[in-house]
Structures are given as structure tokens and as C-alpha cells.
Amino acid sequence: MLAKRIIPCLDVDHGRVKKGVNFVNLQDVGDPTEIAAAYQKQGADELVFLDITATNEKRKAIVETIEQVASQVFMPLTVGGGIHDVSDMMNLLRAGADKTAVNSAAVRHPELITQGAEKFGSQCVVLAIDAKFNPQTQTYQVYVNGGRKATNLDAVQWAKEGVKRGAGELLVTSMDKDGTKSGYDIDLYRQLTKAVSVPVIASGGCGKLTDFSDVFRESDVDGALAASVFHFGELTISDVKQQLKTDGVIVR
Amino acid sequence: MIIVIDYDTGNTRNVKKALDFLGVENKLSADPQEITNADGVILPGVGAFKKAIDALNERQLIPVIQQVAKQGTPMLGICLGMQLLFDRSLEFGDTTGLSLIKGDVIPIPTNLGVKVPHMGWDLNQVAHSDPIADIFDQQFSYFVHSFYVKTSADKVLVTTDYGVQIPSIVRQNNVIGMQFHPEKSGQVGLNGLTKFKEMVENADYSRN
After folding, report:
1. What pLDDT shows up at residue A26?
2. Domains of chain B
3. Which of A229-238, B54-63, B99-108, B152-161 comes out lowest in average pLDDT?
4. Do B168 and B188 touch, CB atoms closer than 8 A?
5. Domains and CATH numbers, chain A
6. From chain B, which residues contact A within 8 Å (Cβ)?
7. Is the ipTM value over 0.90, yes or no?
8. I need a labelling partner for B202 at 20 to 30 A (CA). Which of A114, A208, B9, B174 fits?
9. CA B106-B183-B53 angle, 5° bins
10. Among A3, A98, A121, whose Cβ lies nearest the Cβ of B121?
11. A28 pLDDT band (50/70/90 cuts)?
């Protein structure tokens, strides 16, 4: 029986971990390798690195970052942000990443999912989706460009298509919940996990220990991602896991 | 010196990174002479069985690996590298493996209510006590695979329950296989690689 995964997310800009609110007021918080090692010690099951470097020419900074992290930290590493083609994926996987997450580029060119899956295997291709509830249609709508641009895609349909094209995992952020600390969007994850057979990672909204238990007990997600609660030291991963054990959720 | 066989498979560099981190003398190589003379050999691997066998064939490494196993050199196959140790795989047809251990590589059943691939941290249980197996007892390690090994029970040191009992560590004399990725399994994985290093150091085999 697989353990449910707790996944801290690190925003990386030019080789440093930054934090801010909605990508503004970015503050330098440290060296990615040191922070990753600290999370490993706390019992993180996987790490997600989001490359928030704005300029294309600096993109190779993330490859160097992953190279360094992978030489000191021994757990699965997922990298997303600014991946445009198969050669971007190749460079990250060669540097030590285990999975690459595609988002806007996959919406623009869905064949990118298939190309990546054929070349590296589905387990290396994560489809990241930013979803927002549309009260008029009562469905979840896909957004791209860091949540700034709406598309006409339905999140559940897009998830199904992504899996059909070869995505091995879905990392789905609820834009309604992100930053609210009011808990994960359980309705969204229920719909998604019913629609696809690949692992789904929940992202956005966690603020307290029981938010993790709730999303694992009330939907069939495989992992829960969080950034600020871990970065700001509000919760530790060991606290989260202790709570999950108490609540009967299988964790490592 | 431990040689990590370099045949362009995904996790080769990460295996090397873990050995470097542990301070274990190692080298990536596809050179038959270096592999033959190694004190220990690691066969990594991710991806498809047939592609990996083709890549080993291209480099004319299959007889080399078979000879190394026969001469008693400690050998560790990781993930697909473990599956390659067996007779054949049913992945995309029927492909002959290295035949170092008797058994077949078959798909994880999809009708048992489990997701395939088997991807994530799963719990290990020792079936037969052994120094390299015991450190994984009741520990989680990181798996990514859609196929598993069917072999006789006496070869299986450790299992993980995923609807079927998946052999997660197998051993036949000097040849060991780990279905999970020790290089991605945190401290317990590093402990497993250290145990293999100790095995290499303590190997008392004669080379013929």
C-alpha cells in the first residue's frame, strides 16, 4: 500500500529560493540545496521546484540548481516552470530531476506531453493544471501563464486528455483556494481522481494540520503539495505526518 | 572500485551521485575490461526492457555482465536493472534478459484496484533475512515500475504488497536486485548502497 506523499514546493529564481505572495515582493530565502536537505531531514517524500525565472536566457540556472540538489538530496525531484520542449525536459532529467511538469506549453502544444512520454516514459511527465471554478458553468476552468490567462478548457476534460496523451501524474492547483489557507479544494480532487487513473497531487489552500488529513480522507489524491506553511515554519512535515498517522492515513 | 554500467539509461547519474555522496569509489563505464576487473558492478535502468537489452547489446555488454556474475563479482541491479537479471520479459512482446536468475518479468495486474505504474513510497517486508535485506524491513522505499518479477520464493529476500506480492529485493549468491530506487529512497536507500559497498569490500571470491 503506497504511502501518501507530502510535497514541499520551492520557487527558484536565478539559483535561489524566493518567496513572496503571487510572485510579487519576492524575498530571497536561501540556497535550494540547503533548504531541500532540511526538508529531506523533516521527512518530505518528494520536492517540487518551480522555476520562476522570468528571462529565457537564464533558464539554464535551474538545470545547475537541480544538478546541485540531486547530488545532496536523495528523493524524487519534480521540476516545472518554463518547460517548452523535449530538450528542456532532457536537460532537467539529465541533471537529476525525476519528473518534469508542463503547464502552459502543454495547453499550447498538447503533443509535448506525448513526445515527453514516448521519449522518457510517462512517469517523467507531470501535467500541471491551474484550475478555477466558474460559477456560471459550474465547472473548473483551466488557466495558463501563471494563472493570468483563462482558457476555454474544462479542467477535468483536460486532465483526461493529458493522461490519454501520456501524462503519468497530475499536479493540480486550485486557484480559488491558493493562498486562502482554508483547506484543499476537495470537490475538485474528487472529480479529478474519479476521472483519471494516474496519481493526482493536490495543491493550494492548506493552512493547518487537519487540511492534509481532510484531503486524503475525502478524496483519492496521492499527494499534497504546500509551500508557504512549510517555508514560513508554520507547520513542519513531521507534525503533518504525525497528524496523518493519528487520523489513520498511511504515511512514511 | 565499483563500476556503474553506463548505457545511457535515466538513473545512471543519480546512482553515481549517491555513491559520490557516500564517498564510495566509483566510475561510470561501458568498457568491457573495466567492468570485468571491477570489485563490484551496478546495473542501473529505467524505461523499457527491450530498449535496455538493445542498448546493452549494441555495446556488446551482455556476455561481459554474464561473465562478471559468474566469476563472483558482487552485482546490484536497480529497478529495470534488476528486471534485466532475469530470463525474459513480457513487456512489448517477449524479450530475453541476462538469465542470471531464473524468472520472468510480468505486468502488475490492473484489476486489483491499484494504480499502475506502482509509483511512490511503499512498505518493505523481509521474507528471508540477509544483511542487505534486513535494513529495509518495515521501511518505505521509492518505487516506479509497471512490471514485476516472478521468481521462486527462495530468491526473494524482501517483498512489498501491492495487490500482488512484489519482490523488492532478490538475491542469488553474488547477484542482487532492488526493484525500488535506493538512490531516491532517502537515508534507508543510502544505507542499502552502503551495505552493497561493504559486500564488495568483504567479497572473498576467486576470479577464474
Report:
1. 78
2. 2-201 (3.40.50.880)
3. A229-238
4. no
5. 5-246 (3.20.20.70)
6. 10, 13-14, 17-18, 20-21, 46-48, 115-123, 140, 142, 144, 161-162, 183-186, 189-190
7. yes
8. B9
9. 40
10. A3
11. confident
